[in-house]
Structures are given as C-alpha cells and as structure tokens.
Amino acid sequence: MPDASFVLLDDRGVLAVGGPDRRQFLQGLISNDVDKVGADRARYAALLTAQGKYLHDFTMVECALGADAAILLDAEAGRLADLKRRLSLYRLRAKVSLDARPDLAVAAVFGDGAIATFGLVDQPGAARPFAAGIAFVDPRLAALGARCILPRSDAPAALTRAGLHEADFAAWDAHRLGLGIPDGGRDLELEKSILLEAGFDELNGIDWQKGCYIGQELTARTKYRGLVKRRLVPVVIDGPVPPVGTPISNLGREVGELRSSRDGHGLALLRIEALRGNQKLTAGDAAIVPFRPDWLQLPADDGG
Description:
Shape: globular
Number of strands: 17
Strand content: 25-35%
Largest sheet: 6 strands, mixed
Strand order of the largest sheet: 8-9-10-7-1-11
Low-confidence stretches: none
Number of domains: 2
CATH architecture of the largest domain: 2-Layer Sandwich
CATH topology of the largest domain: Gyrase A, domain 2
Mean pLDDT: 94
Helix content: 10-25%
CATH superfamily of the largest domain: Probable tRNA modification gtpase trme, domain 1
Structural class: alpha+beta
Radius of gyration: 19 Å
C-alpha cells in the first residue's frame, strides 16, 4: 500500500481545447511545445502578454473524455473564464473548441509511493490513463508527485480505491512550499511577473526550441542577455508571519517582498544579490532566511 495522500484541488479548473486545429492553435500562443503533449506526456506552460509578462499558467495533457480527444488545461479555477476569453481572441477561423469542464476535478497526489501508485515512471510529465481520466507526474518537478484529472463524481472513490488517503489542502500547500514551487495566481503578479523570475526555465515551463509565441521575443532576450535580477525562492519565516506583499529588507534596504506562506515557510521574490552571503533579511517583525532547493539555478556569483 502506498504511503501517499491525495487532495482535490478546489482552486483548479479544467478547460478543454478540442477540434482538429487544437495543437496548431495553442502552439502559437503559449510558452511550451504543444507537439510534445499527448496521452502519455503532460507539459507545463504559460500564456503571456505581448511584453512577456505573466497572464496564466497551467499543466496540459491530452485525454479522450467522451467521443473526442482534447487537450485539457489544468488552470486556476477562479480565472478560468478569463483564460477562455483570452484564448478565444485568437481563435479566428481555427477549428477549435474551448469548453470549461466543471464535471472534471483536479487532484494532487503526494508522498511516498505517489508516482508508483499509477505505474508511472519517475519523470516529469509522464502520463497514463487512470480510472475514467488520466494521471501524470507533475510536469514541473517529479518530487511534487502526481496529478489526476478525473470525473468529479468519482474522483475521491477512485483515488481511495488506489490505496491513497485523503488529506487537506494545507498538507499539499506545505509540500509545495517546502520544494519552493510557485503557485501562479498566488505567487506571480498579473501582467507584471516574468517567467524566468519564477523558475519556469528549470520547472520545464518553456521550450526554447519551439517557434514563436506571444511574449517569446522578450522572454528569450531576458534569458540570453542575463537580465534576471530577482528570483522567487523558498524562505523560512522566524517570527510572526507577515501578509503577502510585505517588503523584505536587508539592514533597512528593501530587497524583495513576501509571497504565499504557511506554517513558517513561504516564497519570497528577492533580488539575487540578497541571496549571497549571510544577509540579515527581515519582513515586519520576522526574520527571513532563504534557502536554495536543488532544482533552482542562479547566475554565477558576479556581484549581481
């Protein structure tokens, strides 16, 4: 029996992109290569402004739920209508359908044995059918565990039958924060954040070999000119936890701000120079201690 847990992510929704032109349609819009998405492979991607700023992020996997196959976007539920609206602006004459699927639920599965529960290989994005839906290794980082998209009416029962235990959202959120993984709607700023600040390169959210997409030119320029000066990093919060957006200071000089947090752990957007050496960072009355997860890469120590 796996010692793993599942949580139904009520903050996630599913947008089904169907029709014969679905791949070509998405390919010109988003940051990852849609041709690498299939029933056996999920991908992580973002939709950007023309200036390369964050609008939406989502995982995507192909699945036949009903008569026709579709690419399912696992996205922020509260902004799913906005994602559909923005994609619709580019539909023009493409043979594409965009359908919200409230009948589908997204679940996160994490802990020892999470990936093995579904017979998946331990590689980001590996996918296979499960129950009446699909399961896949989180395409950002395998250490996060697996995700499932399932009919809402049967999701808890199907996951319980697989030997998993239901957990609350707080347990999943603590797992995410411990690995330093951003939660798009909570940790990125709409029309302000850039992908490379939020780890999209290391977290498999950008394909540098694919063709053009919205915001591609500025995203590439940021990478190849070394223009990233801040990073979202996990932090330990020693003291009363300040609210989201609280400035973080180093001896009176502002060097970043706090983002989502829980139980003394959080994410912070910090200037890279503030991550070098033993700096004394504070936010409100709390001490902030950043740490670097294995997956996170920083530029060479050139003085910032």
